[in-house]
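Duplicate of earlier report; Thiamine monophosphate synthase input re-posted below.
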Amino acid sequence: MIVITNPTNIENEISIIHSLFAEGLPLLHVRKPGFSEAELKSFLSEIGLEFRSHLVLHSSHHLADTLGIKRLHFSESNRSKAKLFSESKWIKSASVHTIQEFNTLGDNWNYAFLSPIFPSISKSDYVSDCNHLEAIKQRTNFNTKLVALGGISSENIQKTLGNGFDDVALLGSIWLNTNPIENFKKCQQLALTF
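Output:
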């Protein structure tokens, strides 16, 4: 299971991140689109060094080596920049919005987010124009792990994983929850049944 940071600061965010790792969070995608490079470095410096191998950068990829981060995420708009990180030491992920686009990803992608699966929890106007749970039947790419994103919660994790997704990513169900750690543990327990 993957957690993506809230795009803006959250009260006690670093403490929550450390607690998520303590509860077994395998990967945290650091997505702070409004942050300057200096703000991003400052934010990352607050996360314990022991968790660097679990962090995925969404921006300022050129900082990765300096920060000891080997995981990089590329959105649709910046995917062409992934060529700059062609060495095998990099673990790369991508964002896609259709199963057809996912099917065209080459072997150099470890996993990709397909979104939105359900109406987004964090973005009220972000809904899918197709049924991805049905469209997944057209999957032909089995070299890249397929991760469901968008509206994922404890109510639909099992349905999602039971329909052919390899993993799920959480954002709103963590950061907009009054008890993010307990909700994470509940989601994690449900995901581990698959």
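Residues 17 and 47 are 8 Å apart (CA to CA).

Merging into the original ticket.
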